[in-house]
Design a protein that fits this description.
By secondary structure, the protein is of the alpha/beta class. It is about 35% helix and about 20% strand. β7 (about 115-120), α4 (about 135-145) and β8 form a beta-alpha-beta unit. Bound molecules: flavin-adenine dinucleotide (FAD) and uridine-5'-diphosphate.
Length: about 750
């Protein structure tokens, strides 16, 4: 869907509570531009305009601002004008229109959706103060929509006869977000004075809550404390029942919910059984279960149908039964092994990723019916949305006017350079730290079309044993490293001779051991390189090509930067945002979670950026790639490491390095996220392994690649080269140039 925009119209404020629209749209924003358009805010004496901000996940939230007191016609005119300015100013040309509120149709009717989607998550017309005209607006929206989703099964039953293409997409759960609630997390300050046992609810507090039942249950169980977290809407806070064991704590961010649930003993959903709740499918049911809590709920149809059979879920229709349900849930608390595994199995397949990918497939199918992807519509199929594939897709589309289908088997763009905020909202690199550096002005100029930059000079310390115990010393080895490692005080001019006296000369220099031993001698080699390399590659430096350790220089001065390139900077809004801009072109279509084989066999020209041996079915045997397992962790401190990366050459430590992302990104946040890298032989292919026998094997694949006319192989995996990002960009740019030259030559010959 990339090269496209998604305009979402919603009656909910983005910051209200994190629910279905947010879960889905942050996933959409991994590959396309997403605009979340809220209803207007009113101010005295202003001209209609939009206030926009970009969330950490890359969704642009648009809040229309209208002058106080305009009549309904003025409202529609103002909203249309704001929308037009937004679309023209941002070159939004053929957006997907994604509605949560049929009311938005009033001012968007002139747009043609590509396609139009109605994600119906509630029976809005049954809500308090609902506009009586809503059912008619919904019918009008249904008439325009190519596909309709419903947020639950009851809603599906209610809507299925109203449209020919309705799909039930019950809301899911971000299990990994809530699972930490089962561990020890700091207690929210507003909980400290509330005694246990505690039964909690979070969500919007409006007419859907049965406050009478709640007050009665609280009176029946004075020793139990009822905690309610969430914004109060459409009801007067003064009308909420009050009691010593009823605690109304107000709203809090999605990121804080796990720490909140962690301090409850059970969860509750005291929903009223009325028109407004007839069709609801509360997202919080699986969230509570993921947080490890048993749940007491009134008999909401979807809750009964989906979870009613679980031991962890107690259905209770009145206050007496609700109180008894709470007793049962609290009694279960000490015995999680008897009910949690069953609940975990029930929610295992309910991830938002898979819900989004099913919805995405439906939207795609609507646009491309009957087949999803038809290669004949494209001039090029590009496999892999990393640097190699994205640069080529951009050049072919924007530089050569070609139509490009870009596929990637992963659920996001950016390849290994992809970044995304973690559960705490900290921008991390899920595939390990990526620091951009280059000497190439051409590469820098090219990428600068898609991103602004934040200057960043990378520094690394290695934890090594020295004469004075374990120390964190600069790597690459420099004057400071030498002085502190050996306990000497050499001037800059003396360092070369000092190291020269220790160096073990190897001629010819062939392996990674030869390079380092010849530069710094055995002590520094063993402390800084041998253990690290054995872990990283599963090979001794003497078994690896010299090019591997030659990446790390030796210095005699005090320069402690890891790189000395002319340009050292990080994309200001992150790599994914940069890729998103790169791929935002009407001629580029992106299909994620798609294998290149899924695209069919008859081919236009293909660019392949995956592993070259995989393309040829491993016909000459497997090319070795080194892999990594990443362990991510968030700490409750603002800073954990003195520099961006700390290396661990010690063979006894199972990981090679720890990265603290905030150094790289400059993000300001009260917490910090770290990543440790554990090298492995199995797993996703990350590193080609530079050694002579692998180079020989690669040459056999290269011969096959050269003989495959309609496929061009580019990138780190497809050309089996230990390339940095800038080298891959340069390779992709020159490949595009060659492809264009070839086309011109063919045309001239014809
Ligand atoms: P990739 O980013 O690997 O992209 C290939 C894409 O193809 C993947 O998304 C994959 O899912 C997809 N794909 C593969 N096969 C198929 C298939 N059959 N069907 C569909 N899709 C397929 N470089 C730097 O310059 N600085 C750094 O600091 C840096 N740090 C790094 C740290 C780590 C841990 C790693 C592993 C690499 C680092 N790099 C760094 C290197 C950088 O990641 C690469 O140079 C760059 O990302 C390579 O881009 P690419 O497009 O060739 O490959
Ligand atoms: N290396 C090492 N100790 C270190 C840093 C690097 O032994 O403290 C070796 C190791 O073999 C590593 C290689 O030098 O794989 C290249 O390091 P670089 O940081 O360039 O690797 P990258 O992580 O960028 O691929």
């Amino acid at each position: 869907m990339a090269g496209q925009d998604l305009l979402c119209f919603s009656h909910l404020r983005w910051d209200f509570v994190f629910q279905r629209p947010q879960h889905l749209l942050v996933r959409a924003a991994r590959s396309i531009r997403v605009w979340y358009i809220e209803d207007a805010e009113w101010h005295h004496g202003i001209r209609p305009h939009a206030v926009t901000r970009t969330t950490p996940e890359g969704v642009v939230v648009v809040v229309p601002q209208l002058p106080h007191g305009v009549d309904p016609e003025g409202y529609l005119a103002g909203m249309r004008m704001i929308l037009a300015e937004l679309m023209i100013g941002n070159r939004i040309e053929r957006p997907i229109l994604w509605y949560y509120t049929p009311h938005a149709l009033d001012w968007t009717e002139h747009l043609v959706g590509n396609p139009t989607v109605y994600d119906c998550m509630d029976e809005l017309s049954a809500f308090r103060y609902a506009d009586p005209g809503l059912p008619a607006r919904e019918r009008a929206l249904m008439a325009r929509a190519a596909v309709v989703f419903t947020g639950g099964h009851s809603l599906y039953e209610a809507k299925r006869t109203l449209h020919r293409n309705v799909h039930a997409m019950p809301s899911g759960v971000d299990t990994s977000h809530f699972a930490p609630a089962r561990t020890i997390l700091p207690e929210p300050a507003d909980h400290a004075a509330i005694p246990h046992p505690r039964v909690g609810f979070y969500g919007v507090i409006d007419e859907r809550l049965d406050t009478t039942l709640l007050a009665e249950a609280a009176a029946l169980r004075p020793e139990v404390h009822f905690i309610l977290v969430g914004p109060v809407a459409k009801i007067d806070p003064a009308d909420l029942p009050q009691a010593p064991n009823l605690h109304w704590l107000g709203s809090r961010a999605y990121a804080e919910l796990p720490a909140t649930c962690a301090h409850w003993d059970a969860a509750m959903m005291p929903f009223a059984l009325n028109q407004a709740t007839r069709y609801i499918s509360p997202t919080k049911t699986p969230e509570y279960l993921a947080a490890g809590l048993a749940v007491v709920s009134t008999p909401i149809a979807d809750v009964v149908a989906t979870y009613g059979g679980l031991q962890a879920v107690h259905i209770a229709a009145d206050a007496q039964a609700f109180a008894a349900g709470i007793d049962a849930a609290l009694a279960q608390r000490p015995l999680p092994e008897t009910w949690r595994p069953e609940a975990d199995r029930a929610i295992a397949a309910m991830g938002w990723d898979s819900i989004w990918s099913r919805m995405h497939a439906q939207v795609h199918a609507t646009r491309r019916a009957p087949g999803i992807l038809r290669r004949a519509e494209y001039d090029h199929v590009v496999v892999g949305a990393g640097f190699a594939g994205s640069v080529l897709a951009e050049r072919l589309a924007a530089g050569s006017g070609r139509r490009v289908l870009l596929v990637d088997r992963r659920p996001h763009i950016g390849g290994n350079a992809h970044d995304a905020p973690d559960a705490a909202g900290i921008l991390i690199h899920p595939y390990g730290p990526h620091i951009f550096h280059t000497n190439s002005e051409a590469v820098m100029d090219y990428l600068s079309r898609f991103t602004a930059w934040r200057p960043y000079e990378h520094r690394v310390l290695a934890r090594v044993p020295t004469f004075a115990g374990c120390q964190l010393l600069p790597i690459p080895i420099n004057r400071t490293t030498v002085n502190r490692f050996f306990g000497v005080d050499l001037a800059e001019a003396e360092v070369a001779a000092f190291l020269g006296a220790r160096a073990v000369s190897r001629v010819p220099v062939r392996t990674s051991a030869d390079v380092v031993l010849g530069a710094v001698g055995r002590e520094l080699y063993e402390a800084f390189f041998q253990g690290y390399t054995r872990k990283q590659w599963g090979l001794d430096p003497s078994e690896l090509d010299k090019s591997v350790t030659a990446r790390v220089p030796t210095r005699t001065n005090d320069d402690d930067r890891y790189f000395t390139d002319r340009f050292q900077a990080m994309p200001r809004d992150g790599y994914t945002a940069m890729f998103r801009r790169m791929l935002h072109h009407p001629n580029i279509e992106v299909a994620l979670e798609t294998e290149w084989q899924d695209v069919g066999s008859r081919s236009p020209h293909m660019v392949f950026t995956g592993p070259v041996d995989e393309y040829f079915g491993h016909r000459h045997g497997r090319l070795p790639y080194r892999s990594l397992r990443f362990e991510h962790e968030t700490l409750e401190v603002a800073q954990a490491l003195p520099v961006g990366v700390v290396n661990e050459p010690d063979p006894a430590v199972p990981y090679t390095r720890t990265t603290e992302f905030k150094h790289l990104t400059g993000q300001v946040h009260a917490q910090t996220s770290l990543c440790r890298e554990y090298p492995t032989a199995e797993g996703d292919p990350y590193y080609p392994v530079p050694r002579p026998e692998n180079a020989d094997l690669y040459r056999r694949y290269q011969a096959l690649a050269d003989a495959t006319d309609d496929v061009t192989f580019v990138g780190r995996l497809a050309t089996y080269k230990y390339y940095n990002m800038d080298q891959v960009v340069a390779q992709a740019l020159s490949t595009w140039q060659k492809l264009m030259n070839r086309t011109q030559a063919t045309m001239a010959a014809e």
